[in-house]
């Protein structure tokens, strides 16, 4: 079974631009979560989607948004990029909701904002 | 407030030596506990998890962890470290009522010959 895939793997953007990151979950998984990883803040939860609905959201500004499609693939969008948005963005998928369901992580998308 | 603490930012051990990585949590209810490992340029891989039952859990790659409710700890151990174990290790806590995992800041493990 293929793992979680994230595209692109690397991105370089400039301040003020917007960016869209994509995540394809493991086949059969219906839940997709996004995390931001930075050296200073560590791993922080962004949001979680299940059955095309956002179920949980972390403490991030409205510039961060996402969506999930009917095939469970998910995208996250960051508008008006700031230097502090430079991070590794990790996507995780699981079969169901709740921490009891093991989350499988993708390799991440490394975003650099110049 | 809920929190996860990994007191050691960096740990260096010799190959073949034993390893213990510490994790303390602050949660109201009995949490679900996890240890993940992240190699450079990779995503997170689950090493082991604790939900209930036997407080000593076995994971992949020869790792084990022990849940101690009285100490609010979930320390990761390995009896003999291999050079390939060098990586970043994250402790995480979750609740079934919520989905987000709350991660510690991580411990970077260096293995010397």
How do you describe this structure in short?
By secondary structure, chain A is mainly β. Chain A is built from no helices and eleven strands.
Question: What's the arrangement of secondary structure elements?
Answer:
The complex is a heterodimer of chains A (114) and B (113).
Chain A: E1 5-7, E2 10-13, E3 19-24, E4 31-38, E5 42-50, E6 53-57, E7 64-68, E8 74-78, E9 87-94, E10 104-105, E11 109-113
Parallel strand pairs in A: 2-11
Antiparallel strand pairs in A: 1-3, 3-8, 4-5, 4-9, 5-6, 7-8, 9-10, 9-11
Chain B: E1 3-5, E2 10-14, E3 19-21, E4 24-26, E5 32-38, E6 44-50, E7 56-58, E8 64-68, E9 73-78, E10 87-94, E11 102-103, E12 107-112
Parallel strand pairs in B: 2-12
Antiparallel strand pairs in B: 1-4, 3-9, 5-6, 5-10, 7-8, 8-9, 10-11, 10-12
The description of the largest β-sheet of chain A is: 7 strands, mixed
Question: Overall 3D geometry of chain B?
Answer: globular
SSE string of chain B: EEEEEEEEEEEE
Beta-strand content of chain A: over 45%
Task: Tell how many strands the DSSP assignment of chain A holds.
Answer: 11
Binned, the helix content of chain B reads under 10%
Element string of chain A (H = helix, E = strand)? EEEEEEEEEEE
**Assembly classification:** heterodimer
Helix/strand/pairing category of chain B: mainly beta
Beta content of chain B: over 45%
| Low-confidence runs of at least 5 consecutive residues of chain A | none
Q: What's the total number of strands of chain B?
A: 12
- The helix fraction of chain A, in percent, is under 10%
Rg of chain A, nearest Å? 13 Å
The average pLDDT value of chain B, as a whole number, equals 92
How would you explain this protein's 3D organization?
The complex is a heterodimer of chains A (114) and B (113). By secondary structure, chain A is mainly β. In chain A, 0% of the residues lie in helices and 53% in strands. Chain A has strands at 5-7, 10-13, 19-24, 31-38, 42-50, 53-57, 64-68, 74-78, 87-94, 104-105, 109-113. In chain A, the strands form two sheets. In chain A, strands 2, 4, 5, 6, 9, 10 and 11 form a seven-stranded mixed β-sheet that branches. A four-stranded antiparallel β-sheet of chain A has the order 1-3-8-7, with no helix packed on it. In chain A, a hairpin with a 3-residue loop joins strand 4 and strand 5. The N and C termini of chain A lie far apart (37 Å). The model of chain A has no long low-confidence stretch (mean pLDDT 94). Chain B is mainly beta and 113 residues long. In chain B, the strands form three sheets. In chain B, strands 2, 5, 6, 10, 11 and 12 form a six-stranded mixed β-sheet that branches. In chain B, strand 5 and strand 6 form a beta hairpin. The model of chain B has no long low-confidence stretch (mean pLDDT 92). The A-B interface holds A 4, 31, 33, 35, 42-45, 48, 50, 55-56, 58, 90, 92, 97-100, 102-108 and B 31-32, 36, 41-46, 49, 51, 90, 92, 94-106.
